[in-house]
Every structure is written in C-alpha cells, then in structure tokens.
Amino acid sequence: MATIKDVAKKAGVSTGTVDRILHNRGRFSTETAQRVYAAVKELGYEPNMLARNLSISRTCRLAVLIPYPEQDSGYWALPREGMDEALSALSPYGVALEYFHFDRYDSASCGEAAGRIARSDCDGMIMAPLRDGEARSLIRKKHVPAIFIDTDLQGSGRIAYVGQDSRSGGALAARLLNLLSRGREGSFLILAPQTENFHLSERIKGFREKIERKAEILATGIEAFHDKADFHAALDRVIGPETAGIYVVDASAHYVAEYLKEKGLTTVPLIGFDLVEENRKMVRDGVIDFILTQQPREQGFRAVNLLYRCLMLGEESPGDQIMVSQIITKENLPD
Amino acid sequence: MATIKDVAKKAGVSTGTVDRILHNRGRFSTETAQRVYAAVKELGYEPNMLARNLSISRTCRLAVLIPYPEQDSGYWALPREGMDEALSALSPYGVALEYFHFDRYDSASCGEAAGRIARSDCDGMIMAPLRDGEARSLIRKKHVPAIFIDTDLQGSGRIAYVGQDSRSGGALAARLLNLLSRGREGSFLILAPQTENFHLSERIKGFREKIERKAEILATGIEAFHDKADFHAALDRVIGPETAGIYVVDASAHYVAEYLKEKGLTTVPLIGFDLVEENRKMVRDGVIDFILTQQPREQGFRAVNLLYRCLMLGEESPGDQIMVSQIITKENLPD
DNA sequence: CAACAATGCGTTATCGCACACGCGCTTTAT
DNA sequence: ATAAAGCGCGTGTGCGATAACGCATTGTTG
Lengths: 335, 335
Hints:
The structure is a homodimer. Chain A is α/β, with parallel strands linked by helices. Among the domains of chain A are: 55 residues, Orthogonal Bundle (434 Repressor (Amino-terminal Domain)), CATH 1.10.260.40; 128 residues, 3-Layer(aba) Sandwich (Rossmann fold). Chain A is built from 14 helices and twelve strands. In chain A, the strands form two sheets. Chain A has a six-stranded parallel beta sheet with strand order 2-1-3-4-5-11, sandwiched between helices. In chain A, strands 7-6-8-9-10-12 form a six-stranded mixed beta sheet, with helices on both faces. In chain A, helix 10 links the parallel strand 6 and strand 7. In chain A, helix 1 crosses helix 3 and helix 9 crosses helix 10. Chain A is elongated and about 85 Å long. The relative contact order of chain A is 0.13. Chain A binds a DNA duplex through helix 2 and helix 4.
C-alpha cells in the first residue's frame, strides 16, 4: 500500500503539502495540486484509516432516537440489541452510542428526547421516525448525518433507510394463512391497532391482496381496552369456530394467543409479527403458528455499521437497505 | 480513555516497561509487574487498537478453503459473497482474504489446495471441512487459528464453528410439507444424493421424525444420472399423482422443479434447500414452494468477522454459532 | 527602494503503541 | 582480579496521518 510519503516523494513535495491539498486546506498552487492528484492516482493511494483516526483521535458519537425498549411488547429492545452488537465490534475504533428513548404515543416525550439530542454533541444519528414532526425538525436543527430505521420519511434529508417491505410482509402472511386454513370453513380475522400507521396499513393491504377468502377486520388495538376481560369480551364477539385464521398486524399476537389458550381454541391458525419474548413463548407452545419478523436486530446492526462507515471511513452511503421478511415457527425458533 | 503513559506514570515506571510486562516479553521483576497490573486494573486501561495495529502495521491474511463456487448448483458462491462483504468493511484495517478452491468430490484436489495454504503465509484459516482428512491434516500442519463453516469436525482443533442445525432444518421441512400436502393423498418422496454426508442424513432424520404420513426415499443424487432423460425416467417411476410432496435434501430441487414443469405437475408440493440462482427462479415461478436456507452468506460474513476479532483485537472466541434455518418463498424472495 | 503583505511550501510535534537497543548495576565465571 | 554474563529498566525511533507554525520567495504599496 502506498502511503502519504510515497505520494509526496512522487509529486516532489512534502507530506504536509500532500495533506493540505488532499484536504483542500491551507494554501497551495494549482500546479502542485495537479502533480499530487496525479501521484495519488498513479500509486492508487488510499489513506490509512488507522493512522488517520489515531491522529485526529476523534471518537464517533452516535445518538439513537427510538421508543422505550419495552414499548410494543418489547419490540424496541431488538434493534437495540443489534446496535449493541455492532458497537461491541466498533468500540475499539472509538465509536460510542447514546440512546435517547421516548414514548411513541406521546409527542412531547419525543420532542423532549429530540431536544436532548440537538443539544448533545454527536456526529451522527439513528432514529425510528415514528413521529414525523419531531424527526423532521431534529434533522433540520442538528446538521449531522442521520439514518432511519423501521420507518422511512421521504424528503427528510436522511442519508439512508434500513427497514422493511411491509406490503410483502402482508402478502407472506396471506400465503401462510391460506395454507394453515386449508380444510377450515369461515373467514379470516385481521387484528390491527386503531392508530394510523403506514407499515400496518401496508401489511393489511398486502394481506388482503393475497388471501383466498374473506377477511373481517377488528381495528381496535389492545391498548384501547381497559383490561383483559374487556379485551376477551371483544374477541368473543369476533372469534368462533367459523374463524379460519387470525392475522395480527403488530407485535401483540401473544395477547390473542393467550385468549385462544384460555378458550381451548389453539387449533385456530394464528399469525403475527415481531419475535418479542411473549410471542416467542407462544410460538414454542404452538399457539402462534408463524411469526413474521423484519429482522429488527439486523436493522440496528446495519444502521450502526452504515453510519460508522460513512462517518469514519468516509464511504458513500450505499443507499437504502430493505430487509426481507423472515418466517419464524416452532422448528426454527432461535435459541 | 487511559493510555499506556497513564499506566506507566501510575505504576512509577516507563512506558517501555509497561509494554514489556503486558506482552510478557523481555525482562522485568515480579513486583513491578504487580504494580503495573494494579495500575492497569485501576485505570481500566485497554490498549488502543488503532495505535497497536498501526504500530505493528500487520496485515491479517486469511486463507479460505472451500469448494469451487459453482459446485453444488453454485452454493459455494454464497458464503464467498458474505466473506467479500465482511472484507470490504475490514480491508481498511489491513485484512486480506485469499481463496483456495477445490473439487469437493476429489480428495487430491482438496489436498492440493490445502498444501498451497500450508505453504502460504497466512494468519488464519476459514474452511469448509467437507473432506475430513485434508482438513485435519491442514490444521496439524499449519499452526494458525481456524474457523469451520458449513460442516463441523470434532476434535480438529478449530477455534469456532459457524454453521447449521441440519436436524431442525429437516423438521422445518416436514412441518411445511405437512401443511402444503393437506388434502392430498399419497406419501412423500425424499430425494437425496447417495454420498455419505452428515448434514444430509440429519436433514432426513429430522424430516422423518415430524412427517404425518409415509415417505419413500430415492437416494440417488442427480450426478448419478447420465443425462436429463435418464434422470426424468427415474423420476417417472417414483412421482405420480399419488405423490403428496417432494423433499429434496440438497440444492438440486430446481432439477426436480424442471421435471414437474415439463410434466405439468406444478401443483405437487416441493421443498428444497439453498437459495442458489436456479432455485430462486423456480421459487419465483411458484414451482418450488419453499426453500430452506442456512444463511450461507451470513455464515461467511460471521466467520471472517470472528476470525478478524480473534486475531486483530485479541478477543476470545465466542464459541460456535449455529444459524437458524430461514424459510424462503415467493413472497419473501430477496431482490 | 524600503516596508510589508501574500503566497507556497517544509518542518515539526503529536496521536498511542511496539520494539530494539543499550545503560548501569549486580552476579557469576575464568 | 578482571571479564563476561545476567538483570531491570529507560530511551529512542517508527507506524501513517494531521495540523499548527514559520521560513522563504514573490508581489504590492507609498
């Protein structure tokens, strides 16, 4: 590998000059610049990142804006795991992660966390922009590269998006539920929260496009009910022997599984999203047939790596990364 | 972060002494060593990897011993992709990969490639030990850390194994084929190569344990037939309307898919392994219903990262990594 | 033409660590 | 008694890049 010295020698200047020219800093003549660039090209010079990062001894601080880990049945702990794993590999190179959590159902909470990031000293941001306004305004305020995970926001100025294709997730659920319900009468039941959400409605659309029978929808999230009894009463009204299969578009399939278990209806096909701990249990018990996951761990892992490579290695952003849906069932449950 | 200077000051010695003690090199007294260790502990000193690797300016050369990429329907290109991806992230830190390919059906070819590695100058090895003898003897000859992918070999002296749980892969196939064949008469057909192979027989075992009907087995690999007509004639004898489903235990499901397509039997459930290009096409066409993959890309990716971290960062080997089976179907086909 | 500003570039210290060398002392060998 | 070897340790240099500093040379003024 050619070093800055080789370039300097070939261009007939000192290393200091090469450095200034390559960083477009200080003073230099255009013709020496030409010679230096020529030498760089000829030698195929690439700066040694070890030496550079050692010299500027910068630590790369990444701020992470995601909901509280325990929200959405513990879903947000998963991307965090992936980010921590990436961190453990990168910390020797001076990468630090700081988490700023918020209540995803509370705009003020998100604004407050975003404010703390804006005031913090960070070199990059990773966020799940569940609340448009706060995410957009944070990017406007804090001029550092940002990567979005989980949800995208067009025209927000992010450098990359690492996320999912929700539509195909729905289609996949349809395919599996079609299979599971063969030989059963009746129609499907879709369970969705009431709150407006791009991903969830895409999951519903993709599902509806591919199913081979009718589907009723119960668009009232678990959080809308006062207690378990209340919720079970609601399910009583929509679930019965004539239910061919149940499709839960968010991470709360385990609540339904609990209901099915109590009512002795464990043979009713049930599909949900996100491999949170409660869902995992219900998969192991065979009450949930399939869990679809968009690899949140992997999303977190990649986001950190991507941002690191942009900031520290000066690479171009490789553009968006769409994770494929993974199918989890009893036989391939991790751990 | 504390540096070696801080440790030296606290221990009342020079940095050179600290260095010698920490690397157990040269000469030093036990009591200074005590003081140094105490200082290290107290300050939480960890060497700066940037500086270390810069100073010794070592390049970490990894030798990779796997079959030719095009073998097994192109399967071996997949771990290579993962390794190349890991490489692109690590090359700024002086990691280099050198591939040594061999014919997996030819012991001499493998021995020759292993010989070239033994003679090469490398700091670590990654190998798919499909041929016991050659793998074992290479490890005996070349005393550098080795990681196995795809297949494990007990007592070989490898530092880690990154691979699959074949038994559960078979169980998963059974689960899916049970589902797909609902409403069909007849029995299952297992297609397997004749060659003795741990993974493949585990896949068969796991499958047999979970199926809900009988299964016949045709243990004659594709490679045993002279031409397509010969192969199709053999399939004619075992596949018919009474076939409830077909389970191909290796990457050659696409050959069967081609047959089914020609005979107009595309509704016969078909499951295979490994997302090689031909299988991908047949999944897209809906002839292959499910492909199970043990994430060979990911295996390669992890192997490189693991070895890098052991060699360059001096981390402990985190032990074996078993990848879960992934289910691929039309709706979640990557790309 | 002296005084001064602007320009282009080289020098040097620094980052944190590794490693060779050799100093000054004590112990052993001849 | 003198040389040789052993011991514990400090010093110095280099890895590749950064960035502040300052020296020449040239150009511009009154």
